[in-house]
Amino acid sequence: MQPVSVLLFKKNTESCMEMILDYAIPQYRDFKCGEYFFNKAVKSVSISSFGEITAYSETAKHSDYLKRLGFLQERSKEGKTLFRMKLQQ
Prior knowledge:
Layout: E1 5-13, E2 16-24, H1 32-39, E3 52-57, H2 60-69, E4 72-75, E5 81-86
Parallel strand pairs: 2-3
Antiparallel strand pairs: 1-2, 3-5, 4-5
């Protein structure tokens, strides 16, 4: 068994997690790990109290990746590009 992807979140509020790391080894950068987590696994991990996930992006490639996963683009007050995904309860 080989770890191929790492996701790291921090709690921002009682209902919001911020994704601070989303890394996949080069051989697995085909969206499958992200699509699996955000479309299937997120329903089974211990996040029932969270209503949304946020992520910041500084590059077009990363922004495209977040959009493909279902995040919606917003603008934060700090001027960084903010993305938000509502989680279904």
